[in-house]
Amino acid sequence: MVYFIGAGPGAVDLITVKGATLLQKADVIIYAGSLVNPELLQYAKKDCKIFNSAGMTLEEVVDVFVCENTPDKIMVRLHTGDPSIYGAIREQMDLLDEHGIKYSVVPGVSSFCGAAAALNAEYTLPDISQTVILSRMEGRTPVPPDEEIAKLATHKASMVLFLTSSLVEQLSGKLIEGGYRAETPAAIVYKATWPDQKVIKTTVGNLAKSAKENNITKTALILIGDFLSGDYERSKLYDKTFSHEFRKAK
Ligand code: SAH
Q1: What are phi and psi of 80, to 5 degrees?
Q2: Distance, CA 234 to ligand 1 centroid (Å)?
Q3: Ligand 1 atom showing the smallest separation from residue 110 Cα
Q4: Atom 11 in ligand 1: residue holding the nearest Cα
Q5: Which tens digit of pLDDT belongs to each residue from 101-143?
Q6: Dihedral, 91, 105, 86, 109 alpha carbons, nearest 10
Q7: How far apart are CA 226 and CA 222, in angstroms?
Q8: Which of 1, 30, 141, 200 has its CA 20 to 30 A from that of 226?
Q9: Atom of ligand 1 nearest to the CA of 164
């Protein structure tokens, strides 16, 4: 059995209890060394076989699972944040299917949640935005044309861009082309929840300058939207004049 486990965004204690328990029991761990906090490996048993996938191909990763697979073994594939977001888990699952190896996913705290926490921010403010767009800018990995940044920007929703901090030169232009103002608040969150986390508050127009000044080229998220400013309407949920299933209006 292979468990795809979300390691969380960085801080060792942000893995789930279920994830940590499985790490303690694991006979084999393959972890994404480029982003997963290596301190998490302290959970592993002494005789656990540990592999860093950073230098491995998809086939090499799956080969380890195929070679190690026995009915009693617990094998872990440890991904950063939540495995369902840019985790490339689908292709691993498809190959495991071909080999008849069972798997299960344990979710994790995604870095976009860690970044909001670092900013004490709420993505879904009434009257500001009720939508969070999670995306990336096209680089070496293609993005479907309908999801081009300028198109997504037309919604002016709260936006979080993964895998984009090395591509910021053209980003502001695309965001403004779509509809954000140059002054729309933006933030760059580097290594959210890690001890060396950096939070840089800026604007859409100044994204490239801010990234450059702070030498940010990787392990960062770019957050965009008016949810980062001070103005909003209070939510209905806690409004004393609003009734719902659990509370009558006063
Ligand atoms: N599955 C992960 C994302 C993997 S893609 C998740 O749910 O968070 C890798 C990208 O995620 C990085 O290039 C960076 O943009 C972002 N990222 C991952 N961890 C991060 C962190 N702690 N702080 C800021 N960005 C992070």
Answers
A1: -70, 150
A2: 30
A3: 7
A4: 162
A5: 999 999 999 999 999 999 999 999 999 999 999 999 998 899 9
A6: -170
A7: 13
A8: 141
A9: 15
Q: Is residue 244 part of a domain?
A: no
**Is pLDDT above 80 for 149?**
yes
| 181 and 156 assigned to the same domain | yes
Per residue in 190-232, pLDDT tens? 999 999 999 999 999 999 999 999 999 999 999 999 999 977 7
Residue that terminates a domain, selected from 106, 138, 169? 106
Map residue 175 onto helix, strand or coil.
helix
189 φ, ψ (degrees, to nearest 5) = -115, 115
Provide the 10 A C-beta neighbour count for residue 173.
Answer: 15
Ligand 1: which of 137, 162, 199 to mutate, judged by most atoms within 8 Å of the beta carbon? 162
Residue whose entry in the numeric block shows the structure tokens 């080969």: 63
Question: Which pLDDT tens digit goes with each residue over 17-75?
Answer: 999 999 999 999 999 999 999 999 999 999 999 999 999 999 999 999 999 999 999 99
134 and 32: one domain?
A: no
Query: The domain containing residue 90 runs over which residues?
Result: 2-106
State in Å: Cα 70 to ligand 1 middle. 32
Q: Which two tokens stand for residue 156?
A: 């002016």
The CATH number of the domain where 31 resides is what?
A: 3.40.1010.10
Number of domains in the chain: 2
Which residue, by CA, sits nearest to atom 9 of ligand 1?
163
Residue 248 in any domain: the answer is no
Cα 246 to ligand 1 centre (Å): 37
